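Chain A, query sequence.
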Amino acid sequence: MPVIIFFVRLMLGVSYITFFMAITVQTPVTASEPDKPAEMIGAFSASNNSVKKTEHLYALRAYLPAKEAWIRQLLEMAIDDRSPVVVAEAVCQIGEFGFTESDTVLIQLYTDAQKRFGSIAYTERVRCAIITALGKIGGANATAFVAGLLKQDKGSFAGRFMLTAIGEINDESLVEDVRSYRIMLEEYVKNAEKAGIDPFLYSDKIDCIGLASEIEATLLKGGEHE
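Chain A, predicted structure.
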């Protein structure tokens, strides 16, 4: 009998230990979930390293396609960072998540970019990221802004980003803007050929003509109003 009692107590002890270990292992995971947003925002805010900050922002992709408010809060906070690399990544993530509510923030950033970053290269990097993001989030403000940029552009490096964004927006009302842009580039190339300019120097505009033609054809089929 004592032997039986010993084994019963032993089994009860093992069961208790197993149960206790299970609670110990599972509880932190469950408890930490509500704190995850605060943890990620805190980690971003505490870092002074632009590479680490960019990694924190890129890690947000794990939450796609969710559109939680704390994610937008973190991304818009990151837009105020002094590093143009961090800012560009934040802009890209806004586009990936499709935060339409951030359109005015992005448009203002486009205006302020040169003043904030000074360098032409960094300004272009941030602005092209903004154009791409606006194409992804869409909406009336984004559409009007990108269309306005295309009307003012004279075949710059950013022109391809504008065309791609319009392709993403896919609004048939923009077909005339794309057509006018294509005709302007074709006239430029025609004059360059007459002047005997090396084709390499305007090959980017030739590529843009091809892209504009593709987008124009798509929009002519009805775009989003098809």
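Residues 49 and 83 are 9 Å apart (CA to CA). The radius of gyration is 27 Å.
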